[in-house]
Amino acid sequence: MKRTTIQDVAQAAGVSITTVSRVINNNYPVKASTRKKVEEAVDTLKFKPNLLARSLIQNSTKTVGILTPSIENLFFSEVIKGVDSILKEKGYTTFLCHTEGEATNEVEVIHSLVDRRVDGMVVLDPRKENVVSGYFEELAKRVPLLLVNGYAQGTGCSYVLNDGEGGARMALKYLITEGCKRIVFLRGKKSHSYDIKEEVYLEFMKAHGMESRILRIKDGNDIKTVEQAKEAVADYIRSGEKPDALLACNDWMAVGALSGAKSEGLLVPKDMRIIGFDNTIISMITEPKLSTVDQQMTKLGQLAGNRIYKMMTTKDIENQKTYLETRLMIRES
Amino acid sequence: MKRTTIQDVAQAAGVSITTVSRVINNNYPVKASTRKKVEEAVDTLKFKPNLLARSLIQNSTKTVGILTPSIENLFFSEVIKGVDSILKEKGYTTFLCHTEGEATNEVEVIHSLVDRRVDGMVVLDPRKENVVSGYFEELAKRVPLLLVNGYAQGTGCSYVLNDGEGGARMALKYLITEGCKRIVFLRGKKSHSYDIKEEVYLEFMKAHGMESRILRIKDGNDIKTVEQAKEAVADYIRSGEKPDALLACNDWMAVGALSGAKSEGLLVPKDMRIIGFDNTIISMITEPKLSTVDQQMTKLGQLAGNRIYKMMTTKDIENQKTYLETRLMIRES
DNA sequence: TTGTACGCGTTATCAC
DNA sequence: GTGATAACGCGTACAA
């Protein structure tokens, strides 16, 4: 399975490899007749330049790695599509890798990408361990690196972030104006975005002299989220509590909460209001349709795409943090 | 940002690059003391071999490309995770690329991967155009290629496939034994898997002397599927029809169908039974829970992972087609 | 306008 | 055990 090289083309066209290279890259003047000969040879031999060799000498692979904790979460899918669309347009190929939300996997995958000399990396929802340990900060010195959402306190990295804080506050304010008094907060175990929202929630409830109540489920991103959220909410209601509103950290949880409330005979939104987070498609297929905080996922992705591009093409190393505002989508819950 | 090379390490350790290479790859005897010197130099210089250079000479990147039409479809996510888990274990890095279901994108992405010298490729639900045009058959001669599901008639390619045919037949048989008489079939526009199921449906209905009725919606994979399916089913019922069962080509459609039936006042499963396809998580979050045909997605992915591995490591070029059986999951619909 | 020769960072080959 | 040196396939000064 010997592949044809630039040598073969040169020989077939009766010119030197230099000339072939020039025709292919179209970066130096070549006589029209020569160019034609070369192009013909390229066609008949179906020559495709070996990008490994090219990358080796140019020190650039025109490749960007995208890391995500999960490919089952529609939130990430949308963001990824946003990043992708921008980078593709700029002539980059993107490779998607998933880490199952494990910090060790994250490091491992990153090493693999670095070893393969990607030109840059975008990490969605980076693991907090790797942020606080200074791993990313160190990494950012050696390769263009952009983090999207996730823990961002005092780190020397570039970020593009959703304003989850603002979103949570907006949702809570809305619930208050609607007359809700007993607002419950539903979150997964470990994610910085959950922490942020919880903080806002606690502070908000305290400021309004209301009692706070937090329900916790295991993960939050994986397949079991819905079932776990349902259980948690149903249990809570069964225990005699009478919540009149619930704020969930993402739409999967909200779906589960809805299901749990229904199963215990509560009517949504009459008895209990529910607001989710992300505005993914699933918030629209439930009955009633879920109100949610729109995080503008596509836009977030595009923002990230443009930013990493700038980082790769200029020497812009200053670590900038860009926040994207959120919007409240009131539907039927 | 000059990276440290094997040269630097050799110099620091006072040995030749050959020796350094031997220590790193651990493939030739090296005196213990020398090895130690080299390892220290590697550590202090934080040397990481350039995989591009290595791949160039070894003619292998230890990399596999996975193509999917969509990263929003939970069916594909599961399959991908299956493939991934196997290949990772074998020491390969996988790169995921998505094509938005466009045949032209598919070709483009494949070229990019080939140019980057991936050792193999797994294509989920390949576009029919590229199958019938012989594109894949041609490609398979130059690089280990495995297709998963999709049109497989008379092509010289290796396949791993779900037995959608058997699954559809199983579901229909079940509905009959449950006494259903007016069974409707719901499908999306273009996908070979839909075609297969439709064929079985038509043949089955004819054999049982029942009238067939097919509802068609636009795409089937994208975000609008649920809404479109709901509309289609609601319209159908409003037109005066009284279906007592519906077989949908995937779970998204089944969710929409359920919603449509409900909106027209039909009770599921009392008035009308619904069976979906795939057994994705969403089939479990509806009320009632959806019955569906389990396609064993993870297992399918693992099968694919093992198969492409064999193709890459041996010269096993015979194009084999492996079918994975489906199972009927009866829940509440 | 074209060609020669070197270098990118590794591993493979063959001496010693 | 170890070290020169030639590959791998391509881009690009430099020379012609």
From TrEMBL, chains A, B:
The keyword DNA-binding applies. It holds the Pfam family Peripla_BP_3. Gene3D superfamilies: 3.40.50.2300, lambda repressor-like DNA-binding domains (1.10.260.40). InterPro entries: Cro/C1-type_HTH, HTH_LacI, LacI/GalR-like_sensor, Lambda_DNA-bd_dom_sf, Peripla_BP_I. One of its GO terms (molecular function) is DNA-binding transcription factor activity. Keywords: DNA-binding, Transcription, Transcription regulation. Residues 4-58 form the HTH lacI-type domain. Residues 5-52 form the HTH cro/C1-type domain. It comes from the Bacteria. PANTHER family: LACI-RELATED TRANSCRIPTIONAL REPRESSOR, XYLOSE OPERON REGULATORY PROTEIN. This is LacI family transcriptional regulator.
